[in-house]
Amino acid sequence: MATVIIKGSSRSHGHTSLVVNYLRTKIKCDLIDLLSKKIGPFDYEFKNSNDDFLPLMEQIVDQYDTLIFITPVYWYSMSSITKTFFDRLSDCLHHRKDIGYKLKGKNLAAISVGSESGIVEGFNIPFRNSAEYLGMTYLGYLHTWKSSADQNDSVLESEVMEIIDQFTLQL
Ligand SMILES: Cc1cc2nc3c(=O)[nH]c(=O)nc-3n(C[C@H](O)[C@H](O)[C@H](O)COP(=O)(O)O)c2cc1C
User: Fold this and answer.
1) pLDDT per position as a tens digit, 30-74
2) What is the number of domains present in the chain?
3) Residue 45 is part of which domain span?
4) 105-137 pLDDT tens trace
5) Strand order in the sheet with 107-114
6) Ligand 1 center–CA 32 separation, angstroms
7) Domain containing 156 — which CATH number?
8) Ligand 1: does its nearest atom lie under 6 Å from the Cβ of 168?
9) 10 within ligand 1 shell (Cβ under 6 A)
């Protein structure tokens, strides 16, 4: 089976993409850009069940065994696009349990992309706990960054590339 990166940035070609592009030179994986999908918020009456979420999840559980979530740090937290995706996983615990069961035994990793090297305390916890709740194996978390002072918008610092290299050994 295969690996997929699930990207949750509010721009398709920003700093998160820089990390994704570098990662994809290191590991073979597909990419899903959540920005290109129409995924509404969780609704208790599953009113958004006809949007892109459930077909996307069917594709994910059928084609991949490792899911790497990558999100920019927006206000010390995962992006709202990523959070909406996680909220909608609740559809797979009620309305479409068949999809939820298929997540069991798969792997989950998380990567953040901030403008500073400092890790936001607890950033990894929703990813780690969600993996545990869903019966997935948590492969770990990596914080990366692209400094806003860095004038060159097309390359990552060597230190960031090195920690990504290290992280790929866990995947
Ligand atoms: C709405 C918003 C909130 C942000 N909040 C933080 C933050 O809390 N901590 C941080 O280090 N960077 C923060 N940043 C900077 C981004 O994390 C950083 O520039 C990231 O590399 C952007 O990735 P992107 O180009 O894929 O959006 C924020 C940026 C935006 C647009």
Assistant:
1) 999 999 999 999 999 999 999 999 999 999 999 999 999 999 999
2) 1
3) 2-168
4) 999 999 999 999 999 999 999 999 999 999 999
5) 30-33, 2-7, 64-72, 107-114, 137-145
6) 20
7) 3.40.50.360
8) no
9) yes
